[in-house]
Design goal:
single chain; alpha/beta; seven-stranded parallel sheet; 13 strands; 40% helix; globular
Length: 336
Amino acid sequence: MKILVTGAAGFIGSALSIRLLERGDEVVGVDNLNDYYDVRLKRSRLERLEKYPGFKFFKTDLVDAVAIEKLFESGQFLSVAHLAAQAGVRYSLTHPHAYIQANIVGFMNVLEGCRKTSVGHLVYASSSSVYGANTNMPFSVHDNVDHPVSLYAASKKANELMAHTYSHLYKLPTTGLRFFTVYGPWGRPDMSLFLFTQSILQGNPIAVFNYGNHRRDFTYVDDIVEGVVRVIDQPATANPLWSGDKPDPGTSQSPYRVYNIGNNNPVNLMDFIRTLEDCLGKEAKKNLLPLQLGDVPDTYADVSDLVTDFGYKPQTPLKEGIGQFVDWYKSYYGVA
């Protein structure tokens, strides 16, 4: 298949691209290589992809409507995996306009490209952040998510609404995947595992928010990629039992679906830190801080729909996943 992967220089996008290339797909990658975090890491990810003859890369910003229209017209993609976004909850508190441009305008241009070129399936990254003020655990795609607590979360909720509109109007099959705290080798430097590892190895204290009382459904990147690939291969379909009298937020009378993709096993933040300390063989100095604005205390994914529809559930043990990250980090940064 010929597949467009947006955010191909990103953490998940690069891992997904490798998986698709290794099974024989042709992948066209797009990324604007912005400086939200170290561009050198993004370029290193791209270097891994450029070893594959089936990979082609375009340094393009999704906000550039003309460039994206030309890309879709020339590509004639069977499927699109839209993973590009302005990420980060806390960054959205200080740089809100970046989220409107990348996550709303950029997504609009992708939707239009899919519509105009009759793409067979659009799979896009949503986020566990959309659950916002919800407290009913585990989080279910069949619950309403109308109370986001950050602009980042609101932008991801908006993506789901925009996708549904295009599924309804143009019969474009769209599937949104709500990712739950993805971690692993080649991970993002703004994520807790990367920050903690860096600080512990340097002997600096780590910032532990909510006094360590967070719970997160940490999901290993290879598990995420396996789920995304299975979803790409099975375009969204309409739910024949859907009713406007009792609307199900996770499905529709249009070819539209939303799924949680998480480990279905929330871990206390202090247990997460202890596991990392074991893998590093070094104890962390902890700076206990209150809950940050825009954060939610707990995330916990109900993945029953993913299991039912795709026969798949993430399963990498936390210690194994953290160990893989630590090995990569030491190798990549030359830490003895």
